[in-house]
Structure formats: structure tokens, C-alpha cells
Amino acid sequence: MAAQLDASTGIASPDLRVLPIGVPTLSVVVPCYNERLNVVPLIQKLDTALAGIAWEVIFVDDNSPDGTAGEVRRAAATDPRVRCIRRIGRRGLASAVIEGALSSSARFIAVMDGDLQHDETRLPDMLAALRSGDFDLAVGSRHVEGGDNAGLSSRWRHTLSDGGIRLAQAFLPVRLSDPMSGFFMLGRETFEVLAPHLTGQGFKILLDLVMSAPAPLRVREIPCQFHPRLAGESKLDVLVLVQFAGLLLDKIFDGFLPLRFLSFCFVGLLGVLVHLAVLTLARLTADVDFATAQIAGTIVSMVFNFQLNNQITYRDQRLRGPRLWRGLLLFMVVCGIGAIANVGIARTMYESHANWWTLAGATGAIIGVVWNYAVSATLVWRAR
Ligand code: GDD
Ligand code: MN
Description:
Helix content: 40-55%
CATH class of the largest domain: Alpha Beta
Order of helices and strands: EHEHEHEHEHEHHEHHHHH
Number of domains: 2
Bound molecules: guanosine-5'-diphosphate-alpha-D-mannose, manganese (II) ion
CATH superfamily of the largest domain: Spore Coat Polysaccharide Biosynthesis Protein SpsA, Chain A
Distance between the termini: 39 Å
CATH architecture of the largest domain: Alpha-Beta Complex
């Protein structure tokens, strides 16, 4: 495809160049999981809303069991503006968005849900805001005048959403009335610069982008309606808030400690509480000796930690079915060795410097947790 040359100078000019047919100005990145029934209606809506704009839509599907990717490919067979990225063995909204956006060569990138909850008729306004050159980022907001939140599925979701927004605003470098929005647009070059700094975990890609920018982004908020979901179901739950707290921590630590490790440590701390609770309960209610109670506490807290890590820390690689049981067994073996190493190292240190017992204890515990994390990451939740 030869770039068109400026008639008077013979030099290709990016401003005057007319794009050949098929080269999009705007890529709409749509993360989707089990959205088969929404694919064709979404394409039709984009077709109407984006008349006169050269656009493409990139569906990023995590191998949905409902056959979303197949549906996208069927549409793509007759419409070159439709593209499909099918990821296998991975889950996650933020990482799906990043991959979709990085596959684009268009000048602008929009991110939008695949369930028809976002108002696609706002896309031209977002594009106009960016094209004016006055803004780096356009965000569809439910909380500026003209926007509305009616589509959130329950009262609980409202509370969750409001709580998250307040928490986020306290840390944000820019004013964003709807920092949890999953509907926004930015220049591809801006995205390319920020991409290496993104956490890529959880739901909150917009927050991640805003917090990763070296200088505050100039943000234009566009009022939006949030439609109720018609087909399929929401994948957002309480765990999203937990992950979100993790994202904040990660940004505060500036990526120094991996998010997964923080989550693993947090789960471990809860596990200690569970352990102590079981120990106390066994000592108080049943007539068992200390060693038996201690073993019971260890087993219960290991199962508890495994479950929580499987739900939160490794949410995107969650083990299910027979793999779950195999994983649990391995986890217990790994953590058992970790505990032996912990006690062994602490005792050796204690024996040589008895008055440094806190240091000995802490070193043992830290080595134990790093061992547990490193080994379970490669053996138990091995990336497939
Ligand atoms: N590829 C991929 N992988 N897509 C996913 C995944 C995943 O693991 N999880 C969810 N999605 C897709 C969904 O199919 C949908 O298109 C979009 O991401 C949003 O997911 P929903 O499950 O519909 O989220 P929601 O409607 O509850 O949340 C909305 O509101 C939040 C703010 O409260 C979304 O707009 C979020 O982006 C937004 O943060
Ligand atoms: Mn939704």
C-alpha cells in the first residue's frame, strides 16, 4: 500500500495524506468473555455511530466457552473492519484491553465493553475532543451532568462503585469523576508510551493508565448513559475491589513488589489469623493437646490460603475440577517444606545469636514466604 504523495511537493505528508480504504483512524478495542449474542448487535451499532469515520473493531476474547470468538470470525468473514484476538489459557479484562490496543496501528484507540452497556453514540464526541489537540484522554463518565448510572445491576454494585470511586480519587493525579469507567479513548502513541508501565491486572485499566502517566493527562469527560445489560452476565464482583486495592498498592510501591506477591502476603496474613483462631478454638472446646491443635490449625489455614490465593492472587489462572485437588495437595507440600525451612533457618540463627531472636524469627518467616510464593507460582499455578 503506497502512501499517497502530496501533489505539489511529492513528499508524503501525514496531514494531507488520504488514507487508503481499510486503514482505520480509530480502533475500538472490545474485551469480551461470553458475549456471543452481543457481537453482531455491537458491530451494527458501531456502524451507525461511526458513519464517516474509518474504524475497526478488535474483539479480544479469552476463549469464551459460549463461542464468542467464532461469532466474531463469522462477522469478520464479510466485514474487514472486524478483527478477533483469541487468547488461550488467560483471563483478565485489563490484559485483554492492553493486547487489543497494542495490536492496533490506528491513530486513536477506544476501549469499550462488549455487552452493549456503553453508549457508542458518544464515540464521535470523544474523537472530536482528542482531535482538537486539547486533550490526551476522553472518558465516558456516568457522573458528570447528562451521564447516568442506572445500568448498574444492584444496590450493592452502586455502593461498591461509589466506594471505589472515592478511594481512587484520593490517589489520582487528575480529576476524574468516573475513574472506574471502562469506556474511554486516547491516542495510540500515548498508549504505546504508557503500556510498558501498566500493571495489566484486574478490571481498572483506566486507573492504571492515568496513574502510570509521567505527567498528568489532559482529560475530557464526556457524559454517558450506562445501559442495563440485555444478554449474558456481569463478571465484576467484590473481588474486583480487592484487586483494585492491590492496584493502588502496586502503584504506591511503584512496581517494586509484584502485585501477586503482595496479594500472596496479604492472604498469608489472613491465614495466620485463621490458624490462631483454629488453635484457640481447639484448645478451648476440645480436649486436645497442643501439637494436635497446632496441626489442625496448620491444615485449616493451608486450605484457607490455597482457596483465597486461587480466588484472588491467581484469579486469572484459577484452578478448577481435578486440577484444583492436585493444586491443593502440591500447595500443602510446598508450604510444608516452606515451614520446615522457616523453622530450621530461624533456629540456626537463634542458636548462634540468641539475643537476636526477633531477627532470626523474621528471617525465617520471610524466607518461608518467599519460598512458598516462588515455588507455588511455578508449580501450583503454573501458567499454561
Ligand atoms: N477478554 C476478557 N477477559 N473480557 C472480559 C473478562 C475477561 O476475563 N472479564 C470481563 N470481560 C469483558 C466482558 O465480556 C465485558 O465486555 C467487559 O469486559 C466488562 O465486563 P462486565 O462483566 O460486563 O463488567 P460490568 O458491566 O460489571 O462493569 C462495567 O462497569 C465497571 C465500572 O463499574 C465495565 O464497564 C467495567 O469496565 C467498569 O470498570
Ligand atoms: Mn457490563
